[in-house]
Write a structure and sequence with these properties.
Elements: E1 8-10, H1 14-18, E2 25-30, E3 40-43, E4 49-51, E5 56-57, E6 63-64, H2 67-86, H3 95-110, H4 113-129, H5 135-145, H6 152-164, H7 174-193, E7 198-201, E8 209-210, E9 215-217, E10 235-241, E11 244-249, E12 255-258, H8 261-274, E13 278-281, H9 287-290, H10 316-322, H11 324-331
Parallel strand pairs: 7-12
Antiparallel strand pairs: 1-4, 2-3, 2-13, 5-6, 7-11, 8-13, 9-10, 10-11
Helix pairs in contact: 2-3, 3-7, 6-11
């Protein structure tokens, strides 16, 4: 391995964390179920670092280190766009400023360890379903109802694929995660661009960021107890520095708002709920003043076999993956 290969992978990009640092130092707060630890100083260069997290490996053991450089292009473009909007560039600049931000938001939402954990659990549950009697028939019926049609060769291939799956093999490798990131970005960016874009500035309040910083808010700009996504949340929000956040409502319409204490508490509470393990904050800020007095519970959605019993909740990307049987069938003599 070359000594210059990027084995220290940043699951939240450094340019984002640097905007919450003073002289390169953040305060990190470790989260429990109902409590927040005392702040611990850490360099923004060392925060959210996981070794080999995005290093894909092929069956022959050859490693691919290119993800960091690929992601850096999006991070750099977003850093420039964030600087521009904070300096007063209007939203009327359109795609030139919105697209880099949408791409970064979609990338950041999909790239975290928490997202890989969720994907791994989902894969295990879905693969478990393939072990059950009648799985092929249920999946075939569901796909047919969605407009898919199978010839006999495709039907045999589908059943053969299902028979070969093993639930214990359900895991998401770095390479699989990178594929999911790319697919997620392709789906999410157009929906983000279709939203409204609002910059919320704060004079007297401060914001956290976290190891999973893109947050979803429900009606009335409040944290939602339900698991929401980039496509169905009433608001998508992310703090872009300690004194400003992006808020993307479902309804189109761009602008800038002067943030209130209530809005800062809502964004910070959502950041707290959405974080995986840690919050990050500026060393001059007071964590106790940044959160509401009653912290909402931190809940985790963990899929169960019952949730996916009839495949009706299968993510459409998973169904599209099974479309490979068509290609296999076409290639067979």
């Amino acid at each position: 391995m070359s000594p210059h290969q990027p084995v220290r992978n940043h699951t939240v990009n450094r340019s984002h964390l640097a905007r919450f640092a003073r002289d390169g130092i953040l305060h990190r707060l470790t989260l429990g179920e109902h409590e927040v630890s005392q702040p611990v100083p850490i360099s923004f260069n060392d925060a959210s670092v996981h070794k080999y997290f995005y290093v894909a490996e092929d069956p022959e053991g050859n490693r691919d280190y290119r993800f960091e450089a690929w992601a850096a292009d999006f991070e750099g473009a977003a850093t420039t766009a964030i600087r521009d909007i904070l300096d007063g560039t209007p939203w009327s600049a359109g795609d030139a400023i919105k697209r880099p931000l949408a791409e970064w938001i979609a990338l950041q939402e999909a790239r975290t360890p928490l997202m890989r954990h969720r994907a791994t659990n989902l894969v295990r549950v879905l693969l478990h379903q393939f072990q059950q009697d009648g799985a092929a028939e249920r999946l075939e019926a569901f796909m047919a109802a969605a407009g898919w049609e199978f010839n006999e060769r495709e039907r045999e291939l589908l059943r053969e694929q299902i028979k070969t799956y093993r639930a214990e093999e359900g895991r998401v490798t770095p390479g699989m995660h990178i594929d999911l990131i790319r697919a997620s970005m392709a789906d999410a960016v157009p929906t983000l661009l279709a939203r409204g874009w609002v910059l919320v500035r704060f004079d007297n309040e401060s914001l956290f960021t976290s190891d999973n910083p893109v947050v979803m808010l429900g009606d009335q700009f409040l944290p939602s107890p339900m698991r929401l996504g980039l496509t169905d949340a009433q608001y998508v929000s992310v703090a872009v520095d300690r004194k400003a956040a992006l808020a993307l409502p479902l309804d189109p319409g761009d602008g800038e708002l002067q943030g209130t204490r209530e809005m800062a508490h809502a964004i910070n509470a959502a950041t707290y709920m959405n974080a995986d393990e840690v919050l990050f904050m500026h060393p001059d800020d007071d964590a106790a003043a940044m959160l509401p007095s009653m912290l909402p519970p931190r809940t985790r959605f963990e899929p169960s076999v019952e949730d996916f019993k009839d495949f009706s909740e299968w993510p459409i990307a998973g169904l599209q993956r099974l479309a490979s049987i068509r290609k296999q069938a076409a290639e067979q003599p």
